[in-house]
Structures are given as C-alpha cells and as structure tokens.
Amino acid sequence: MKQFTAFVVKEFRHMLRDRKTLMILIGMPIAQILIFGFALSNEVKDARILVVDHARDATSAQLVQRISQSGFFSVIPGVHDEHDVENAFRRSEANLVLVIPADLNKRMVRQEHTTLQVIADASDPNHATTLVAYLSAVIGNQARSTLVHQRPPITTQVRMLYNPQLKGAPNFVPGVMALVLMLVCVMMTSIAIVREKELGTLEVLLTSPVKPLVLIASKVVPYLVLSVCNIGSIVLLSTFVLGLPVQGSHVLLFALSTLFILTSLALGILVSTIAKTQAVAMLMSLMGMLLPTLLFSGFMFPIENMPWPLQVLSNAIPANWYYRIVKAVMVKGLGIESIWKETLILGGMTLFFVVVSIRRFKVRLS
Amino acid sequence: MTSAAIYVENLFKRFGKFTAVDSISFDVQRGEIFGFLGANGAGKTTAMRILCGLLAPTSGKAVVAGYDVSTQVEQVKRNIGYMSQKFSLYEDLTVFENITFYGGIYGLTTNQLAEQRSELIERLSLQSETHSLVRSLPLGWKQKLAFSVAMLHHPQIVFLDEPTGGVDPVTRRNFWDMIYDAADRGTTIFVTTHYMDEAEYCNRVSIMVDGRIAALGRPRDLKTNAGVATMDEVFYQLAREAKRGAE
Q1: Which of A199, A207, A218 to mutate to test the interface with B (most CBs of B within 10 A)?
Q2: pLDDT band for position B247 (50/70/90)?
Q3: What is the ipTM of this complex?
Q4: Are residues A116 and A248 in the same domain?
Q5: Which of A125, B24, B154, B173 is deepest in the core (most CB within 10 A)?
Q6: Domain map of chain B by residue range?
C-alpha cells in the first residue's frame, strides 16, 4: 500500500508538472465541445439565398417573405437577374439560388403545375442537399397555404423524437466524450509507460520489489481521475452552454463512462507493451485507436450506410458501444434495463483488454 | 559458499538458438568491489539481469544475498540496489521527491525516510538544491544522487551498470570515492564498465568473452599472467579472440 501511494503521488507529480500537456488535456474537451457546438454545425441557419424574381408581383413577394422569415435563409437584398447567378456562386456570396418564373401568379390562379428552379452550390454535397430540402419544404408549405379550398390527398405529419429541433448536439456530445476519453487514456497512459522504458527508469523499478500490477495500477490512476473530470466538464458544458442536459441518470452515465475509461486505459497499457518509443506509442494511439473511434463509432458516419464487412468490424470498436450507451442515457433518458446488453459487451471488452494487457506486460518483463 | 554475496554456478541463458551466457561460474565476497568486464555483446548485461531478477536463467544456479534468483526473486530484489547505465532518476521531479519516491517503493517508514533523506542530502551537499528539479543538476551530481538513491534501502549488494558513461574524469574519480566508501561500509559492489582504468580500482575483475568468463582474478594477477603492463592490454588480448561480433 505504501508503495502504491508513493507511486501514485509520483505519477500525479509527473502529470501536474507538465503544465502544457495538462492544459491541453483539460482544455481539449472544452474546445471540442465549443467547436462542435458553434462552429462545426450541420444545422441550416441563415443560408444565403439569391432570388431571381421574374414575376415581381405580390405572390412572388409573399413567397420571398416566407422564405426569409423561416429563419433558415437570409435573402440577399436587391433585384437580380440570371447574370448575377454565376458571379454569386463564384464569389461564394450565395449558397442557393431560386428562380421565380414571370407567370407564377397566373399559373397558380389557374391551378396549373408550376416549376421553380433551385440552383445549389454542390461543392459541398451534403450541405447542398440539406439546403434544397429545407427550401423545398418552405415553398411547399407556402403552396399548400394558398390552396385554401383544396387539400392535397395525403400529407405526412413528422415528429422528431428526442431531438425535435434536429440539433447537432445530441449527436456530437456523446461522440466527443468517446473521442476525448480514448485520446487521453490510450495516448497518455501508453506514453507515460513508454517514457519510463525510454528513460531506463522502468528497469530500475523492475529490480525493486514493486509488483508489476502496482506499477500499472498507479500509472493509470491519474488519468482515470483526469478523465472523470473531463466527463464532468463536458456534461456541464452540454447542460449549460448547449442546452442539452442529461435526460437519464447522472450516476449511470458516470459509472458507464468509468467503465469505458478502464477499457481505454487497458488499451493504453497494451499499446505500451508493443511500442518501444514515445513517438511510436503516440502514432499507434492515433492511428490504431483514435481513427477507428472516429470512423466506426457512428458519430461522424452512419454505420448503417457502410458495407457489411465494415459494419461487422464496427462492432469490435469499444467506442461504438460506449457511444450507444451515452446516447441512450444522455439523450433518450433510458435506464440500465434498456442498455444492459451494450453494457455487458463493453464490460466484456474491458475485462478482455485488462487481462491481455497485464499478461503481456508481465511476459515482456521475464 | 553460501556466505558469499553472490554465488554463481554453471549459469546458462539461451534466447532461441543464441546462447547469451554459457555456463559461467564465479562468486563475489561480501564487501568486495567486483568488476564485470566484457566487450559489447559478450553477455554481461544478460548475466547481470539474471542476477537482478529481471530475467530467469535457462539453467544453472545463482544465489544473490543468500537467495536463489530462480525461486526467491522477491527477496533478491529487496536486498539489492540497481543503477542503470541510463540515468535512472526522474528529471521532472525534485531531489526531494525522487528520494521520497524511491524510499516509498522500498517500503521505508516515514521516520526512516526522513532520516535517510536528510542524511543523504547532507552527505552530497545538496541542501540548496533539495527542491530543484533533478534536470537542473550537473551530470556528475545526478550520477552521485542516483547512486545514493540506489543505496537508500541499505542493500547488501549494489549493481552498477556502466555508471560512469559520459562523465568527465574528475567526476568519475569522485564517483569511485563513493563506491569505495560504500564498500568500506560493507556493501558488495558489482560493477560493469568499459573504462579499463576503473577496472584497476576493483578488487577483482572478470572478463567475459562470447558468453564465457575468459579471465577472473585480481587486476594485478591478470596483468602478470598475461605478461602485459595495463588492463587495457589484458582486455584487448582476450576480446580480440571473440568470435561473436558486437551487437
């Protein structure tokens, strides 16, 4: 116990003394949440739209007003014609162009089929598709509201559960949590152990009566504490800055986060048994751990859209299961009875990695 | 024979097809300064690692401080100190913190630790540097501190793996004064070195060639037997017969 205390004190000193790294480790989740929350958003807000209005009458004015009041678009002021379109896209002044034909009013009165032209900048295909869909919806609403007497035969009524405003936060906050824990735990643990290998201090420790288990356990304690703090800061930011409070139990969220932290720490130890230098440890953590987390957790790219071999592969990524758990607890407010399967799988993975990494660590010594 | 600090009989270590240590036998008496020489790749590091309990021997027997290294690793480790050729203190911790940490892992009580720590700091005249980071100390001081820390728990035997690599001659001389001091107080010193002048400081030396001990004895006797004037020449004569290249 005395050994363990001495060790943990030393590890904390290492961590606290390296101020720059510590600032990065604490600041990273905060920065990521803020960046994802405010800068990297898929939500449509004030997209610039250029309207080429050939009609210039009350009907077209009403339509343009409706578009600008929707909140999704800001209409570029002034009168424009076809010649402005090319320039507007080239100078990135407009994201979208709407061309209203001169006979809009006439055709609507006669209840004839009318086509409006929508031109989008598809150099960013996802964004272009989203914008077109939003604009079509707004125009559709307007068209329907003018047909007072005649209702279209079928309408759909859509309710977006758990996230009615289709905000990005419920998707990326769990993603950032998985990402940050993976990064801090795997990279920092492996570097901390490999550093001692490089310095030659590990050899000295191994000639002392310290048990390898004590050595490993004390290495991970500071990063465990730091990671729980990071989860805390993410949850706080999410609740008070992004307006996304934890719907389910905080205790459950933190308990399962700790489970994932242990998985990541075990992976970090595993990396440290393979890597010989700190640079290799860092590369392995980034390429071998972080990249799969980004690609296969479902946070950036929907897993359902992947070819089946990759879908199968994604099941082997611990972050995938953690991401599902966090989404369930944080966004849907579900309890353990709904996610026991995911928890069991994650727990099994943790156990597996802990056993393998500790065995590898011992084998390497003898 | 069990009264010897280190007793080695037919110690053998093989990695796959490669025989690193080929049936070596020797013993080291208590309080002796034993030089363990050999060219790079001769097998001295492997032998030393076995004696420190870092590696298990393939066969043969080694008793260190009265305990068998194959079966009583724990007790062996409790009774030895080790200083590696790489600098073995933490540069980002202070002198005080380094001593406290190593005291802690050897299970010194708080009182023992406080006593040892102040005595050590005084002996090395490090009072003004107690709370400086080890990084800021000159290399010579670091080496002395590392040696003292390896001796913190009063081990019976201390293993020094090329302790003076890259250190200037004056500091090396000072360092050897510390080794003599420790030996006078009854500690057995087991030291590897590539400096042949340091070999002369040892009570006895062994020279390893291709995993075997090619010569063992007092430096004076080795020189006489070989009919040469310096340890350098003794070493050269033996090492050039080596068939194994340096790693």
Answers
A1: A207
A2: very low
A3: 0.83
A4: no
A5: B24
A6: 90-154
